[in-house]
Amino acid sequence: MKKIIGALLSVMFMFSLTACETTKGVGKDIQNAGEKMEEIISD
Predict the structure, then answer these.
(1) If the chain, 43 residues long, is cut into consecutive pieces of 10 residues, what is the mean pLDDT of each piece?
(2) Which terminus, N or C, of the chain has the lesser number of Cβ atoms within 10 Å?
(3) Rg (CA), the chain
(4) What is the dihedral of CA 32, 35, 41, 43, to 10 degrees?
(5) Residues 6+ apart with CB under 8 A from 33
(6) Signal sequence span per UniProt (predicted)?
(7) Concatenated DSSP letters for 6-35?
(8) Alpha-carbon dihedral angle through residues 38, 36, 3, 10, given to the nearest 10 degrees
(9) Given this model, what pLDDT does residue 33 score?
């Protein structure tokens, strides 16, 4: 389970670096990644 979470975080982090150009965009990407991780963990 920890390997899956680590892999997902790594992928989300890489996408967040390439997907946004502003500080506001980075914040939104990090927030979205956190929400997805909460969903995965709660399941």
Answers:
(1) 84 73 74 86 78
(2) C
(3) 11
(4) -110
(5) 9, 12, 13, 16
(6) 1-19
(7) HHHHHHHHHHHHHH--SHHHHHHHHHHHHH
(8) -130
(9) 86
pLDDT at residue 21 in the model: 60
* Number of compact structural domains in the chain: 1
Non-local (6+) Cβ contacts of 8 within 8 A are 36, 37, 40
* In contact, 19 and 9? CB cutoff 8 Å: no
Predicted TM-score (pTM) of the model is: 0.45
Q: Is 13 left (phi over 0), alpha (psi -120 to 50) or beta?
A: alpha
Sign, CA dihedral 13-9-6-11, equals: negative
